[in-house]
Each structure stands twice: as structure tokens, then as C-alpha cells.
Design brief:
Helices cover about 15% and strands about 35% of the residues. The protein is an alpha+beta fold and about 130 residues long. It has a single domain (about 10-130), classed as 2,3-Dihydroxybiphenyl 1,2-Dioxygenase, domain 1 (Roll). The strands form two sheets. Strands 5, 6, 7, 8, 9 and 10 form a six-stranded mixed beta sheet that branches. A four-stranded mixed beta sheet has the order 1-4-3-2, covered by helices on one side. A hairpin with a 5-residue loop joins strand 9 and strand 10.
Length: about 130
Amino acid sequence: MLEKIKAVATIAVRDTATARRFYEGALGLKPLPSPQKGTLTYETGDSNLLVYESAYAGTNKATSATFVVGDGLDRTVEALKAKGIRFEHYDLPNTTLKGDIHESGDTRVAWFKDPDGNILSLVNEASWEGH
């Protein structure tokens, strides 16, 4: 029923002004018109990211959104570090940490947080795009 419907990653934040500085400034996302007050909408490749104000911001302990950067993973990590983003390091089974990138087989992932503590990730795998 929903297999041909576009899904949108949705992230709760405490303050949209702070979120705007992070998502537009640090991540370089392009803003789109937002549907209502207290929300921000961003274009991310062929999909969108909806950021909204909520009292529950940052309470999710899992990844909120993943950006598939392909072969540009190392360059993207370095560029974000240069903007002050700190990467998370996790102790995961069958995974090796090399710098800020977790490697498991051909999959390489780097995790970081937005100002509210929402977990975001970068991944090299094109298979995440459904290809």
C-alpha cells in the first residue's frame, strides 16, 4: 500500500533557530517552504527532512536520519569535523572503528549528533538507497 509513497525523516528539536543554524550552516541543507510554524523542511537528495519543535527533542536513542554519501564518506566526515561536529564512537559487534568511521565488511558508517542530541549518520553503502 505505501511502497510507492515517499517517506520523510522527521526530527524533533527544542528550538528551530538553533536547528536552522546546524542543518543549514553545518550540514549545508537547502531549506524548502515549511508547512507550518515551528517546522523546518530541507531538501536532501531525492527526499526531504522535516525538523519540528517538540518537548521530546533528543530523547530518541537510535539513529534519526541517515545520509548516503557513497565514496565521499571520508571527505564528508573531515568537512563536518572542520565545522566543529564531533563524531560518536560505539562499541558494536563485528565492527572496527577506524578514526571516526565504523567498518563492518563493506559497510562504513559515521554517527554524529545535532544540537539536541538527535543521532544522525553518514553511510557509504548505495544499498541503503534501495539500489
